[in-house]
Amino acid sequence: MKAIVNVYLKEGVLDPQGKAVHHALGSLGFDNVTDVRIGKQIVLQLDESDREKARKEVEEMAETLLANTVIEEYTVEIVE
Amino acid sequence: MKTLNITILQFPGTNCEYDTVWAFRRLGHETTVVWHKEEALPEGSDLVVVPGGFSYGDYLRSGSIARFSPIMKAVQAYAGEGGRVLGICNGFQILTEAHLLPGALKRNQNLHFISRIQHLRVVETDNAFLNLFEKGEVLKIPIAHADGNYFVDDETLDDMERNGQILLRYCDEKGEPMVVNGSVRQIAGICNKEKNVYGLMPHPERAMESILGSEDGVRMLEGFANA
Questions:
Q1: Nearest to A66, CA basis, from A5, A1, A4, A2
Q2: Model pTM?
Q3: CATH 3.20.20.370 assigned to B5-226
């Protein structure tokens, strides 16, 4: 089973990289971009066949290590 | 001043441990460098220092992997019993990741690695770290970091201000607030509520001799023997 974890800075926490990219897009003429947030994607291969169990475990991984919930939020997607 | 037993941690990628050894020995203290795989701190440690560097290559987030090293369990227990812990730069990042200090350190606002001698204003002196300073004193201490942009939510921040947990702020040579890396309220150093765990981005161990630009680090590190 494969799990995809996306980690982003929380809403309200300034994302300096997103800001820089937003600015760069603007100077390239893409002036309809209203916001850019940059995150990271962590792809996990799991030796687990129970979807729910896998999700629970990956959420625990995200809470303890993959994301710092003081500044970040995350989403977990279980992919077959 | 009394002689202290200083324990200095070493993770893969730590690179300031021997500067820290040198700085504390210069003040007449005993030092022991402890590898992160150890599970116990040396008997009779008076201060545990988590030094600067790039533990685990700053992978994932600065300090996020080192925080789970075996020695950190011992540090958690030591701090929980009131033992003094000082985190410098990457050490500060490790201590926030370990939840021994509130908040988190994000990428610098301008995305640059900032390396220079920086002015700092002393905010609180009623603690074991900065007790040799006067409030409002302006110091010069080197900084060298990419992830020093301190963030904590407003409510916690207000609590920290009330509890005297803000130790240092970035400023200009006159002591006026200065935006350096985007830290909330220009914070450069903090402590926990119990005031036994300290973290700062600047490097006092690199400010021990005037020929190297500043000796303001001496009084910082001397504070521990005075408290």
A1: A5
A2: 0.95
A3: no
